[in-house]
Structures are given as C-alpha cells and as structure tokens.
Amino acid sequence: MKTLENRTLPFMKMHGLGNDFVVIDARAGDVTVTHELAIALADRHRGVGFDQLAVIETGTGDAHLTFYNADGSTAGACGNATRCIARYLMELTGKTALTLTTERGTLHALDAGGGLTSVNMGPPQLEWQDIPLLEEMDTLELPIEGAPTATGMGNPHCTFFVEDAEAILLDQFGPRYEHHPLYPQRTNVQIAQIIGRDHIRMRVWERGVGITLASGSSSCATAVAAARRGLTGRKVQIDLDGGTLHIDWREDGVWMTGATMHAYNGILTKQFLDALT
Q: CA 175, 177, 178: angle at the middle one, nearest 5?
C-alpha cells in the first residue's frame, strides 16, 4: 500500500442477498491492495469481514474490478459484487448502463428498474480445458459420485443436483469437493434442488470462503447446468439462503438480476493499517 495522508483508507460495505463485500474505490490511484490486506480485512473478528473484497480501478470501460476471496486468493468473477458496484456507479454517475472490465472479460450492467440491477456475466465456459478440469472429459456429468456438472463462469463450478438441498451437510460436503483433484484451481460447489421448470433451490460453498448466503456466479453456473441437463429452461428463479436471483441464459451471455445493498461506509484506521507492515 502506498503512503496515504494520515494513513487511513475509506471502504464501503455492500451485499447482494447477504453475499457480503468490502469495496475499495481505488480509482484515485493512491491505494495498492495486497494479499495481506485482503486477509486482514476478511477477518470478521479483527477486521471488517467479507465473502469477497472488490477493488474498483480505472479501466477501458466505466471501471475495472478486481476480486479477492476471504483467504486472500483472487477470483476471476464475482457476480453479486459486480451488481453491487454497478448500482453504486449508476447512482454516482446517473448512468443506467455500464461497461465493466474484469479478469473474466468485459461485462455489461443495466438498471433493471425497481431498484434491481442486471449484469451479463458472459457466455459460460463448457469445455473441460476452459473451466478448467485436470483432463479431457464430459463436463455434463463428471466421474464423481453424484455425477455433478462442471461449468466455468470466469471461475470453476461443480453443481450437484439433489432431491433435498436442505438435507446436505454443506459444511462437510463443500470442502470435500472444493479440493477435488479434477479441479486444479479448486472449485465452487453448488447443491441444487429442482422445484420446477423455471425454479431452483440452491445452496453454495465458495472456494476460498466457505458457505455463503448467495453467489452470483454460482447461480449462473447452476442455471446453465440445469438447462444443459434438460431439467429447466434457460430462464429460472434461483432461491438462495439469502434471497432470490433471476438468471436468463441468452445468446449474448448469462444475465443475472437481483437486489443489492450499500450498507455503510467506513474508514480503516492508521493503527489497523500499520499492523500489516
């Protein structure tokens, strides 16, 4: 981190359906986020606490976004954080459409009306090498007990379809498959129960984080997996522990729509920042 006047650092706390984020607006160019800062911020007892840290930087579009998991690792995509930041930037600029760049690529965000925000998370990655998996195989049904489906949404996903999503002990199930050898970069794990042709109940374990109340990229991956397997259509409602997202897999990508919340602003103190050095 570069030297700051009085050595403090403003941040925002946001969430999408309880999937919570610390957001740092670094467009002034006076902040460098490090692995150590991400880990310290993620601590819910000694820091602020988050599922992901998102950093807003200048880019070729309206902004460039970089994401960190709670363990300090980076994530190529974070759908709910993207929606939260898009809403923040729309309110800041008065725009109703934005172009955001991420490691995943260029994403488009729209004001969906009624306080809802939509983001196109791009086309899903369906080939084994793009997700990525360890070796060539059918991504529709992996050679794992339960025959889950693998999908890439800028980060890897493993979706299990079950009869009862509530019956799974996710705190045990999730880490077992996050580190499965077929996924060299680890994976997000989803437990999905089909309620109807346009309705899914889903719970999620995020790599580098753990159980989260919601996950945007996981919701997109689950919708794609369900449609590929003929369990649903391409437009579905997904009910997560923290609320509901609407996913629409269109020709131009996977669109995700839902509510966001900018909960509060804060300032990291000199004492907190000095403890990192």
A: 60
